[in-house]
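Let us practice reading a record.
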Amino acid sequence: MEFRRTLRPAAFLTVGALFLSLTACSGTTAEDAAPAAGSASPSAEEIIEMTVARGGVNLENAVLADEQGFFEDEGLDIGEMQMTGMGGAAANSAVISGEFDVAATDAVTAIRAVAEGMPIQVVAGTKSADPEYDGEVSDGIVVPPGSDIKEWTDLAGKKIGVPELGGLPHMATVTGLLENGVDLESVEFVPLPTDALVEAAAKGQVDAVFTFSIFLLSAVDSGFTRVGTGVREYLPNAPQVLWISSKEFAEENPEALKRFHAAIEQGTEYGNENTDAVRQAYHDHTELPAPFIDERMVLEPLNVEFDENGWTTLLDVMKEEGDLREDLSYEEIVWEGAR
């Protein structure tokens, strides 16, 4: 498929980035000491210190790993977990500068950073677009009440609002349009703040919008109609939210990252098995409305592991869109301990 180049996109804001606040903190470096082989319970001398910055949402595996003591069990002292600044680009800067050893970000931001030569590596996952998940879809195209747009083909000649040109919603929309035979030259993409998308459609400033999470579900509850599903269908198994470190930290501290990956994996398993704990984590650590958390929030499965085919699909789409070099590979982006 051919993708029409729009402009060089900035970092895609995930749902997590919507609720982040700028948090200043000082980081500590991980100790070099590794545990003795076969040690079942690390001694005080074997504890590795790490600084970890989670996202504002998509926080389950980190918060639960901390609250359930999984970091401690793995011999990690992460101190008080902090948050990165607004947007994925801040996470890149934070790990490169050494402010944090590991930080949460989104896949598109991480991929573009590596493509541009920034020394970061992806070290673990949080969420990927699971095509087998049969729960409610919480992202996609919606149109306001009374719209004559009923399916993808009706979007020809229309204005579509997206959170960011070049971000995951934009690319999922482009893929959906192409797969449904819509000429991209006939469509105008309009980048808008995520919290302004639905209102822009209601006022007729755009004909349709791609949105997600509370914004999509609230729009549907108020009478908007779904037209097309999103990333799960058109970019299956693509990584969405993940963890990064600097390349230097990954090379010098493989034992620390191995333990971090193990703790996050335990937090992931615990979250998938304990939905009440996940909802409580959102009550305790976000400003999302309580009724939304309890009644409408879609808890899609967490996954610390990656599907290489999902990465390949996303990389191929991004290359065709025109901003990635052709030789950029999964192996170059993802730390060997997370493949």
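A brief commentary: The radius of gyration is 20 Å.
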